[in-house]
Every structure is written in structure tokens, then in C-alpha cells.
Amino acid sequence: MFGRREFLVGSAALGFAGKVSAAALSGGEADKAVDAFLKTQPFQGVVLIGKAGKPVYSRTVGFADIEGRTPTKLGTPYVIASISKWLTSTALLKLAELGKIDLEAPISTYLPDYRADTGAKVKLRQLMTNVSGVPNGFSSWTKANPDPDLFKKPMTTAQAVKLWCSGDLAFEPGTKFDYALTNWVILTAIIEAVTGEAYADAMSKLVIAPLGLARTTPVDPPDLAVSYRTLDPLVRQSNDRFSFFAASGGYSSTAGDLLKAAHAIFDGGFLPPDRKKALLTVGWPDQDYALGGRVKTLFADGMPRVFAWETGRAAGYRSVLGHRFDDQTTVVLLNNTSITQKAMDEFAYSLFGTV
């Protein structure tokens, strides 16, 4: 069992236990941890624990669609938000392995039409670590130009880069951390430039298809869990986005696909050793941030252990993909009820060592 460490702040009880609709696999301690969480949080979704890529515990709670009374299933897809960055970073490292990109090269190497001053200074690795200094022009532009139909209008990645991702640097590259969407729009443009393909097609060839992630897609599937802003009153929350936002947070996936990906990338040989090391090397210690995700030390069995810790938050969706390297345990949580990310993280942490 885990030694207790307050690396996360517990959130306030919200008083919704949910409805447990299935338990494909069972585990006494894991069930106790889930039951305890359901007493204080409005979680509904999927809990999956795996060892070396194999499921050892799963449980589903509540509904994928409350109004339609559609029960949550183990294979229900959810928007995984920023876990998409981890998949995108894996693709970029595959491109580096193929000799198509260099993470130490600047933007202008691959996007010669990008503004010359910034393009010559900002490196790909800095974009992937969110320390580029490129400001979030999308946020400021949309505030100044509110348009309820914005996401219905056609726009290419190149247009988005020119309009929203080419502002004056907010700080010198590598000196601050800024979790800016624009880093990942630029990376999308670079992937498209070096592959000659749309981002989604390149991702499919580089990562999604080779890993066998049949339910992982940047296009919302028909059975996607519904996103809820609140449960009382019951209010849905839309997750509108452009296709070029996929690299930052646009993918949906299932717990099973994420378990498979975690094992292949973290434990297996999907990336060669030098590229895996790059993926897991923390570039901004204050945030435990590596390339497209976090790597942190947490206590397990009374000892500090290294974990990969990927999280996602978009609209009402909340997700966690936690992976402990020494024993190859993976915990996947997928949820659609807008609970706090801190609560999700603490829940995932409590599940390690329960099976």
C-alpha cells in the first residue's frame, strides 16, 4: 500500500455517489478505494488498473448519457484533453527517430514562412515543454472578437498559425512555463509540413495504428460520453474545437486504449531508449513537465517511486493516466462530470497498490 503524501490537495465533498453499473474485474482494496471516493465526489465514468499492459481491475460508474440512461461501459470513449499532448509528443519523437525533425531545431527550419525573429529562436523542444514564450493569441483574439459560430468556420492550420500563433514573445524561450495552446498548433503545422499529410493522418500512421488504438480518434465518435457542466441541475457542456486543436487536447479514447498505449510507450520498445529518455526527461522541474506530459516522484511502499502522470481537462471531461515504472502498474480514470482535476489525481494515486 502507498505511504500517504499530500502531493495533491483534497477537494470539497460534493455529495453524489453515482450508480455502479458494472464490475468486469474485481479487487477488494480497489473496490474500497472506489467506494470511498464515490461517497464524496460526483464521479461517473471508468476506472481501470493494469499490470504490464494487462487489465487486473475495472469498474464502471453511472451513465455515459444521463438523459438517455445509457450506462457507462468499459469501452465508452471520453475526450482525453491534454493526454493528447503525450500522444503528439510520441509522434514527434517517432519523426525524430526517422530523421525528419530535430527537437533542437528552431521553428523556421520547418516553417520557413513563420516570422523570422521568433522562428529562429524557439526550438521544437521548447514548444513541447510549454516554455517557448509564444503567447496564446487564440485566447486574446477570441476575447476581442467574440463569435458564437467561430468553430463552424473553415480555417487551416497555416491560417491559425499566422493569426494566433505569431505574436511577440511573452518571455525569452526557456525562461518561463506557459501552458499555451499555441505551442501545439505550431507543432501541428510542423508535423503537417514534414510529413506532407494532415495531422490526423500523420498521427494515425506514426502512433495510433501501430499501437492498435482502435478507439482513439480526434473526431468525436457516436458513443462518446456526454460532457456535463453540472449534475444538479443537469447541464450539458459542449466541447467545440477546431481540428488543429487535436494535438493539444482534441483526442477521445477509451481506458483500454490508454492502458495499451502506456505499456507500449513506457514499458515496451515503441520508442528506442534514447527517444524514451527524451520523452521522460523533465524540462521544467517546477511543473514536473517533460515532453507533452509530467514525470514525478511519489511515495509508494514507503519509498519514492517514479511515475508518469498524464492528465486531461476539457469541458466536463476529466482524465488521468498514471503509470508507475518500477512495477508497470497503470491507472486510467475517465470521467464526464466536471469534478476537480485535483480530486481525480488524488483518486488515481489512491488506487496504486490496491491490486
UniProtKB/TrEMBL annotation:
It comes from the Bacteria. Keywords: Hydrolase. One of its GO terms (molecular function) is hydrolase activity. Signal peptide: none annotated. Residues 31-340 form the Beta-lactamase-related domain. InterPro entries: AmpC-like (IPR050491), Beta-lactam-related (IPR001466), Beta-lactam/transpept-like (IPR012338), TAT_signal (IPR006311). The keyword Ion transport does not apply. This is Serine hydrolase. It comes from Caulobacter segnis.
